[in-house]
Amino acid sequence: MNPENELQNGEDEHSRRPKYTILLPTYNEAENLPICIWLINKYLNELNYEVLIIDDNSPDGTQDIAKKLCNEFGNDKIILLTREGKLGLGSAYVFGLKQARGDFVILMDADLSHHPKHIPEMIALQNKNNVIGHADHESELRIRLFRTPDPNSTKSNSGPIRAESNGIKIIRFR
């Protein structure tokens, strides 16, 4: 168990608030990033969360903006992870997963193609039904239920599950 997630003050596993890690890969998102972080904070401010900004050495000043956001919202809430060169979205998610400290991980784009206002609804559905959510290009919430004996995995009896790298997704991580 991660020491930072250990139970404190006599809490039991059911009374502890889950932590959510939001993975936010960026490349040239200096304009969108402050809005995205502000919206995440607006809709998740009652939750225990952290945002990992994974930047691929953006030439537009994204890292400078991210550092200011870390200072403004707190280095425990907003964390900047930098990588050398444009290494791609998929590998950014893998890199971020290795640093995630949450019980759940939320994957989303920083370009505001999917509005952060959908995250609380997805969390509620995840908690209730063990679901995967997806916001399509019109930013409408789409829910696909995959009930399984193992709450940490998903599978479908009706065919393969497509792994898409866009949209908002939530997965149980711990």
UniProtKB/TrEMBL annotation:
Enzyme class label? transferase
Q: Name one GO biological process term.
A: dolichol-linked oligosaccharide biosynthetic process
Q: Which UniProt keywords apply?
A: Glycosyltransferase, Transferase
A single GO CC term for this protein reads: endoplasmic reticulum membrane
- Pfam families xrefs: Glycos_transf_2 (PF00535)
Q: Tell me the GO molecular function terms.
A: dolichyl-phosphate beta-D-mannosyltransferase activity
Q: EC number(s) per UniProt? A: 2.4.1.83
Which intervals hold domain Glycosyltransferase 2-like?
A: 21-137
| Database matches in PANTHER family | DOLICHOL-PHOSPHATE MANNOSYLTRANSFERASE SUBUNIT 1
Q: Which protein family is it in?
A: Belongs to the glycosyltransferase 2 family.
Q: What name has this protein been given in UniProt?
A: Dolichol-phosphate mannosyltransferase subunit 1
Organism equals: Meloidogyne incognita (Southern root-knot nematode worm)
